[in-house]
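hi! just following up on the protien thing from before. the input was this:
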Amino acid sequence: MRCVIARFPFELVKSEVQQSMKGIKPEPITGESVVIGRRSYPVKQVGEVITRQDRRDFTAFEITRALTRLGFTVHPVAAPVEPAVLSPLETASALLGPAERD
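and the predicted 3d structure came back as:
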């Protein structure tokens, strides 16, 4: 499949992308991720490997679009979990602990 990443044309094939990522240890995932084989990789790491460009030269969207068109499963950024906001009364109650019974 022909695609343009960071203004450079690439001819990508799914099996070649899988082969390129074989033996590469996934970095910690902080943004979008793609499943290749049984591993999840950050999209930017995959882009750096398959294009041989610095990851600052392309966007995650460019790589995500190309990998999706090749048939890979791309997972979006996980939404941060908001901590529960307690009222002042609930906060004081939690600090005091459970009531003791006789």
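Strands lie at 2-5, 8-11, 33-36, 39-42, 73-75.
DSSP finds four helices and five strands in the chain.
cheers
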